[in-house]
Amino acid sequence: MEEEMLATGAAGPREEEEEGHTAPTSVSAPMEDSEGCEGLWELPVELSERRPECSRCGRPQKVCLCPFLPVHPLKVSTCLYIIQHPAEESRVLRTVPLLAACLPEDKCKVLIGRRFSEDRYPELATVCKNSNTLILYPGAGATNLEEININSSDPCVIIIIDGTWSQAKDIFFKNSLFRIPKQVELKTSLSSQYVIRTQPTNTCLSTLECAAVALAIMEKNESIKETVLRPLQALCSFQLQHGAQVHHSKEHLLKNGLYDKPMPKNKRKLRRMELLVNNVKI
Ligand SMILES: [Zn+2]
């Protein structure tokens, strides 16, 4: 759009010249001219300053990832509910808009907030109480998603919490609604490709990666995973080409003696790091 405007601007003076030639006797020519200018002044000033965003992928237009998105939204029966911590929405590198762009609108719902009460979110409450709804949250009470018997007659809903580990934990434990659905986890060998952001462990996946793996399992279709991951891979390689550094997981850094931050004094944190190095799932 910015380029389009520039193009019109460049063509402007030539038009004026032509106008001058065709209407030398008319006094209305300067008026027409000023009217033309008025139109330009009315354009909002921010337009040239704000980076225009692509309406589909949410990325700045110059780095639009739409060529890496499926031409048509994927046909899936599973519906995703992404519960997004407010801090996640303002991050520059967000993966949820990319995920949403791969799926039909009614199959990927994003709710932003920290607290989700039954009164304020009656639709979500109904979803949580449905026996076909699962929540992706690893832990002692979680079943491997691959072992879940999916009742194919009714479409399933998977709730995914989008945020850092502590934000996700906070959302899970402080909202009783999220403890109603069956708790599931992914036992995947997929290593996070989202190398731009440091993940606590190599197997800690971004929301988009979790959704890709979960959808492939639910829909019994491996190609879904590749399709959903493609824009993320493009995003990462683009960022790396433009100077972003590979962020290895803390686990990788510790194991390879590359962790250069001071070790925590807090005993609990130190213990967590020991567990990370020794491959204990935390
Ligand atoms: Zn785009």
UniProtKB/TrEMBL annotation:
It is an enzyme of class 2 (transferase). It comes from Anolis carolinensis (Green anole). Residues 1-34 are annotated as: Disordered. Its EC number is 2.5.1.25. It catalyses: a uridine in tRNA + S-adenosyl-L-methionine = a 3-[(3S)-3-amino-3-carboxypropyl]uridine in tRNA + S-methyl-5'-thioadenosine + H(+). Belongs to the TDD superfamily. DTWD2 family. Keywords: S-adenosyl-L-methionine, Transferase, tRNA processing. One of its GO terms (biological process) is tRNA modification. It comes from the Eukaryota. This is tRNA-uridine aminocarboxypropyltransferase. Residues 50-244 form the DTW domain. GO terms for molecular function: tRNA-uridine aminocarboxypropyltransferase activity.
